[in-house]
Backbone:
């Protein structure tokens, strides 16, 4: 490990403002206090970091950089306006509920997922109901456009 770059995880920031890291070869059994060449805060918790070790000592991690993750950076920048006319807006995001692997983007929630823009919305709930609403809804297909269900009602 001496001189080798190690990929670790920023586990948090302690009460003294020091970053805590964990990494695969950590034998301490708990996250270690690290020094950093970056300004870090709680919002970076969970991010992958590149680590070197002072004097080759695995108990003295040095954070060199944050690993670039476009989705993570987008979530960190999410800071919705707090207004009196929309008190339900929350900036609290559980990053574990969003997964991306380069081929698929997965959003997970226990009760409901709502995508909304103006008068358009898509609502998915845990019972399997999907609600699509908008002032105009279009579907286009170069192949068969199927509507399947136990029954289909129009108007």
Residues:
């Amino acid at each position: 490990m001496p001189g080798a770059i190690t990929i670790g995880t920023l586990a948090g920031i302690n009460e003294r403002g020091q970053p805590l890291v964990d990494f695969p070869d950590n034998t301490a059994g708990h996250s270690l206090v690290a020094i950093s060449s970056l300004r870090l805060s709680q919002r970076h918790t969970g991010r992958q970091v590149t680590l070197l070790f002072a004097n080759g000592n695995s108990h003295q991690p040095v954070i060199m950089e944050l690993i670039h993750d476009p989705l993570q950076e987008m979530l960190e920048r999410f800071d919705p306006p707090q207004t009196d006319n929309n008190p339900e807006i929350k900036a609290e995001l559980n990053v574990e509920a969003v997964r991306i692997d380069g081929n698929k983007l997965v959003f997970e929630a226990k009760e409901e997922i709502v995508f909304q823009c103006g008068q358009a919305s898509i609502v998915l709930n845990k019972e399997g109901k999907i609600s699509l609403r908008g002032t105009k809804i279009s579907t286009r297909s170069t192949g068969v456009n199927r509507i399947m269900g136990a029954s289909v009602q129009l108007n």
